[in-house]
Amino acid sequence: MTLTLSHDGATLFAGAARDALTEFEAALNTVPGDKPGMRLHDVTVLHPPLAAEGAVGSIAAHALGARTRPVRAILFVKNPTTNWSLGWHQDRTICVRERVAAPGFGPWTVKAGRIHVAPPFALLERMVTLRIHLDAVPADNAPLLIAPGSHKALVADAEIESAVARCGTFTCLAEAGDVWLYSTPILHASAASRSPGRRPVLQIDYSADGLPYGLQWAGI
């Protein structure tokens, strides 16, 4: 685990996933690549490297402690036939097993058949997200853009543009096997790829918290 670059809310761990790329490639081959974001679950090949003691999960555990666990996994694949851009936003929802009455949680949505809910911001700000790069992501291959420092508060939609202008923009370039860790609610975006190749990224949310009111993490 080699930390090479740190910004306010995001840190690059160079080559941290290199030894696990075979497992991640195997996971990529189990799901279709024709959607902007594919929510993964029950992909058992992912469990060992993403666990708190695993090659990649240990990065999250270093930030959150030994009780951390992966709570959501999404595969993003951009290629010549599946390419898109994503505007500035904060990730504001978590994935749970079932809907229950939970004060402070909501609104509720269903994405790819899985139940999501917006939790209190205090829960989000204690989470981290890992982006595992299976291929190199130079400037022309849709790198993640972040607004450093924007993870410290919930930003209203109408205020996102001004928040990005105030915080500035940083481009998260990567080599194959690199892992970016960032605070889950940081403002981020991604342009469409200008490269003719592919850009597969595994995005994993981690938390060390239990959920109240009988809610349960859906897990991966």
Features:
single chain, alpha+beta, Jelly Rolls, seven-stranded antiparallel sheet, four-stranded antiparallel sheet, 14 strands
Describe what you observe in this structure.
- It is a single chain.
- The chain has helices spanning 21-28, 47-50, 57-64, 121-124, 160-167; strands at residues 2-7, 10-14, 38-40, 69-78, 86-89, 94-96, 108-111, 114-117, 128-133, 144-146, 170-172, 179-183, 188-190, 199-207.
- It is α+β, with helices and mostly antiparallel strands.
- It is globular.
- The model has no long low-confidence stretch (mean pLDDT 91).
- It has one domain (2-93, 121-207): Sandwich (Jelly Rolls), CATH 2.60.120.
- The strands form 3 sheets. It has a 7-stranded antiparallel sheet. A 4-stranded antiparallel sheet has the order 5-13-10-11, with helices on one face.
